[in-house]
Design the sequence.
């Protein structure tokens, strides 16, 4: 038990997060709806917060930029192997470039624990006209 606790502090066997969206293709100004799916790891863990950033990557200009962020503060205590869902809504900006071969968008999601290494996830979306 103690070994599992220390391993989870290093990120091995800790809870994992995944952003589940209703679709992957959106227009500028749309609302993105879905939920964060959190799966407990090998030990009980206290979750402090969920962070989600909308990031645009422009390969031509060599720029990766956070457009907007949302943070959910929480005190969820997740049990080993437990599944937990947190609703997600995100308003996309009304202006900006659409997705191309050079321009891409993704949500970068992070799960922060009271102790230990957090969990990270990345989900690509397309912005169309």
Sequence:
């Amino acid at each position: 038990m103690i070994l599992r606790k220390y391993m989870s502090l290093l990120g091995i066997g800790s809870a994992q997060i995944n952003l589940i969206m209703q679709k992957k293709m959106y227009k500028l100004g749309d609302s993105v709806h879905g939920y964060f799916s959190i799966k407990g790891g090998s030990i009980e863990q206290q979750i402090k917060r969920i962070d989600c950033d909308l990031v645009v990557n422009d390969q031509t200009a060599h720029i990766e930029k956070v457009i907007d962020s949302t943070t959910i503060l929480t005190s969820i205590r997740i049990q080993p192997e437990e599944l937990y869902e947190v609703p997600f809504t995100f308003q996309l900006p009304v202006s900006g470039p659409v997705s191309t071969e050079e321009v891409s968008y993704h949500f970068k999601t992070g799960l922060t624990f009271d102790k230990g290494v957090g969990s990270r996830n990345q989900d690509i979306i397309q912005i169309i006209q």
The chain has one helix and nine strands.
